[in-house]
Design a protein that fits this description.
Blueprint lengths: L3 H10 L11 E7 L4 E5 L12 H11 L5 E8 L9 H11 L3 E5 L5 E5 H4 L11
Parallel strand pairs: 3-4
Antiparallel strand pairs: 1-2, 1-3, 4-5
Helix pairs in contact: 2-3
The structure holds tetrahydrodeoxyuridine (THU).
Length: 129
């Protein structure tokens, strides 16, 4: 069965602006109502100002007023499935909590894990109270 979230991540990947690394990534985030919010990586010649697809997707959704999320799909052209980087894991935890993370490649290989498995023992707002 086709997964609309995976399809959206693969489609978003085509918009990646990655002239420096040539490593294109797409992300699609499903909110609590079932709506899909997408992002792709956007690179800077400074390198450090580059923004990953996952953070673009979550900032895109939050900027539209969405606050509750269920799943994210991340698409890249790698044999070994590409997981979110460390900073993206933290930002996803901050804004989405323990969502399901589905990793996919262009050959249709996929795997789903909980964000907590990728970011065990996270720092979060609870520590600030
Ligand atoms: N990148 C993402 O967008 N998401 C990931 O999960 C891994 C890395 C981007 C950042 C940069 O534009 C390129 O991939 C190479 O690191």
């Amino acid at each position: 069965m086709a997964d609309a979230l995976v399809e959206a991540a693969l489609k978003a990947r085509l918009n990646a602006y990655a002239p420096y690394s040539r490593f294109k990534v797409g992300a699609a985030l499903e909110d609590a109502s079932g709506a899909i919010h997408t992002g792709c990586n956007v690179e800077s010649p400074t390198y450090g100002l580059t923004m990953c697809a996952e953070r673009v997707a979550v900032f895109h959704a939050v900027s539209q007023g969405v606050r509750t999320f269920r799943r994210i799909a991340v698409a890249a052209r790698t044999e070994r499935l590409t997981p979110p980087c460390g900073p993206c894991r933290q930002v996803l935890w901050d804004l989405c909590g323990d969502i399901e993370v589905t990793l996919v490649n262009l050959k249709g290989k996929s795997e789903s894990v909980r964000l907590k498995e990728l970011l065990p023992r996270p720092f979060d707002a609870k520590f600030l109270r």
